[in-house]
DNA sequence: CTATCAATCGATAGCGATTTTCACTTAATT
DNA sequence: AATTAAGTGAAAATCGCTATCGATTGATAG
């Protein structure tokens, strides 16, 4: 490999980091709910715990399975509802911002995207510096890297204005 | 507009680029279909055209609406089918690799993801150099950038093995 | 140009993921 | 403990997408 002046650093998050992070988040959860006016229910605690102890990025169904060990009567609807609530409260994030419907792209060249977090509009983007990371079989842990798609979360002009006026209950 | 001290090398694809790209792709479409043994139907041509003339990244529903101007009798099922077919043939791409079900993440710090393109497993990743691009209200065209999520497409160890044995030959 | 066969298409039923509705708890506040 | 607002479970409704099945169309041989 030729030496690079700006060889970027990519690093998988360690198990220790995750463990410390999880403790901190769980310890503060009740306080933060109070601040935000959210009721602290056993379901919410269990779901956040399940989320934080999952190394992967679970679907509602997977969380449901996990949580039923502690809360056998919980319903799947509650899991969906709660995950959304946690996201809105900033206690969790959705990996898949654009998942309501599949979105297609006629551009088959390698490129990236800017996504408006409010209206979900997407624009193509060129960012050649990112592509250098994926020369011939770069690896990371057990993964062989193929290419990358940078998704830049942004607000478009229209949504910036709209968000400024009606910050409250607008659909996302 | 905003005083930029340093604009990173991020660039929206220009309309001219898109126009040239579209002409080239449409001109070659028939040839490439023949090479791949795909029938060239008016529906497929119309759908590819709709895809390439969409600056955004349309859903099946949006393509459906657009295509009906030329093909009023086309069905939504055909649009779904054709978009999938075009993706398999390498004539289009899906922006949303993980869209079958919403995936959640308990880690609310800014971070990135490695996604196995085969089993859709996701791992968290740290790459601080990317975050430098999103300091205090960086903009790109009409977008105010918030943060970015780099999605690295990869193959995990298990899937690499599985892919090596169970796949005959894969053309890129 | 036409016959033939296989691929593709349109309409609709079906399915899985998510959301909504509503009567009934439970949490937070007083 | 009582009041009130929020949250929950169960079931039904919705939404995006896929499977099925005749009808139609494209490609090729004649």
How would you sum up the major sheet of chain A?
4 strands, mixed
Largest interface (C-beta under 8 Å): A-B, 80 and 78 residues
Helix and strand content put the structural class of chain A at alpha+beta
Range of strand content of chain A: 15-25%
Q: What is the C-level CATH assignment of the largest domain in chain A?
A: Mainly Alpha
How are the strands of the biggest sheet of chain A laid out side by side? 5-4-7-6
Q: Based on DSSP secondary structure assignment, what is the total number of beta strands of chain A?
A: 7
Cα-atom Rg of chain A, whole angstroms?
20 Å
Poorly predicted segments of chain A: 1-6, 167-172
Break the fold down into its secondary structure elements and pairings.
The structure is a homodimer of 172-residue chains.
Chain A: E1 11-12, H1 15-36, H2 42-52, H3 60-67, H4 76-88, E2 93-94, E3 104-105, E4 112-116, E5 122-126, H5 128-131, E6 139-140, E7 143-155, H6 157-165
Parallel strand pairs in A: 4-7
Antiparallel strand pairs in A: 4-5, 6-7
Helix pairs in contact in A: 1-2, 2-3, 2-4, 3-4
The first copy, chain A, binds a DNA duplex (30 and 30 nucleotides) through helix 4.
């Amino acid at each position: 490999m030729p030496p690079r002046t700006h060889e970027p650093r990519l690093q998988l998050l360690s198990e220790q980091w995750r463990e410390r992070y999880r403790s901190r988040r769980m310890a503060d959860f009740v306080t933060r709910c109070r601040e935000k006016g959210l009721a602290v229910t056993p379901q919410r605690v269990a779901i956040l715990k399940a989320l934080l102890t999952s190394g992967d990025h679970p679907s509602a169904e997977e969380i449901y399975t996990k949580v039923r060990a502690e809360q056998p009567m919980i319903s799947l609807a509650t899991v969906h509802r709660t995950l959304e609530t946690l996201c809105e409260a900033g206690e969790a994030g959705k990996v898949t911002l654009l998942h309501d419907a599949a979105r297609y792209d006629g551009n088959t060249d390698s490129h990236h995207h800017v996504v408006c977090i409010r209206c979900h509009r997407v624009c193509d983007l060129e960012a050649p510096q990112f592509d250098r990371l994926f020369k011939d079989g770069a690896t990371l842990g057990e993964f062989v890297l193929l290419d990358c798609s940078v998704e830049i979360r942004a607000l478009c002009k229209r949504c910036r204005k709209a968000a400024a006026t009606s910050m409250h209950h607008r659909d996302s």
